Amino acid sequence: MKSTPLLNVVDNVTGGPAWFSGVRPYFATADIEGVTLRNGVPVTFEDRPSRANLVGEPGDVLFAKMQATEKVFQITDEASEAIFSTGFFNLRPRRAKVHPRYLFWFLRSDYFQAEKDRLCTGATQKALTLGGLEKISIPLPDTIEEQASIAANLDKADAIRRKRDQALAFADDFIRSVFLEKFGDPIVNEKNLPRQPLGKFGKIVTGNTPSRSDPANFGDAVEWIKSDNVNTEEHFLTRAVEGLSAKGKALGRIVPSGSILVTCIAGSPSSIGRAAIADRSVAFNQQINAITPYKGVNVYFLYAQFLIGKPLVLRSSTNSMKGMISKGEFQKIEFLRPEPSEQEKFGKVFEKQIEASNLLREASTHAAELFSTLSHRAFRGEL
Predict the structure, then answer these.
(1) What is the radius of gyration, based on Cα positions, of the chain?
(2) What is the mean pLDDT of residues 262-269?
(3) CATH classification for the domain delimited by 2-139, as one of 3.40.30.10, 3.40.190.170, 3.90.220.20, 3.90.1700.10
């Protein structure tokens, strides 16, 4: 496998539409999630933004110029009428030298993204310039057929990875569906179930931060949870990177396994109300309220209400740009309170689903690792 300057095998398409009639969709860099286009903004030639000046044809590959922005999109027949932002580079493969799909996967590779980020310049928002792009080389197999074969293998590995991720999403959707079928929407309570304030469901504790002026407060006696460990797609707390010492533990707020931690102070209102279950004893900071369920309250049932009924929590937040829910307001939030036996039935379904999700998550992680390995090997000439 030889390495050649990228611009020796592609054309950098810069020209915009000389003229077009009617309405076309416009896509900025923010309108691409990974490799998928969101709905574009309809524009005419006259009213399009000044940056809406890039067009392409099927097979072209766009990538965002900004540093640390891994957005890559290959233009399809359906997207060939679209207008794109000049925040993208548009590379058109010279098909006698590089296969379009091989080019796509190269631009998605860790190697290319690292090179792009290394070469980005700018005082405020760093981005790749044409001068930087000229310095990047692409490893190329000897024939287009070999490139096509590598691209096909990566396509297959990526399809497996996506299916595993979709299965995980379906698993969470299943839990929501079971809850809504059995108890209804906790926001509107169409089944007229009893409601009670959270203070009746369990013991509520607000976290704290032992004084940082005394480094001896921090160590490895107990994990010290922050909102980053709660505001994830995981149902359980992720591992904390910081902990409290035995001295700090005595000053901190500790809850046992089986508690639910909820973000109640956050930099943006959208993060308020995110919840996760503690599967070990933990300490936590003042941005979080924790509730340890009383006897007769199923932890999975209670957690599901935070998951599905997040707007109930948001209603108690202040109207500031950051958002905050005090312990006093938190314990007043009313949740559904069916009979303990009904909560337990749902809890058993949730437990089984978590077991299944864990298996799916392992498979998803394995698929992601397989894809990453194949990608590294592909662009080192080992496939």
Answers:
(1) 26
(2) 85
(3) 3.90.220.20
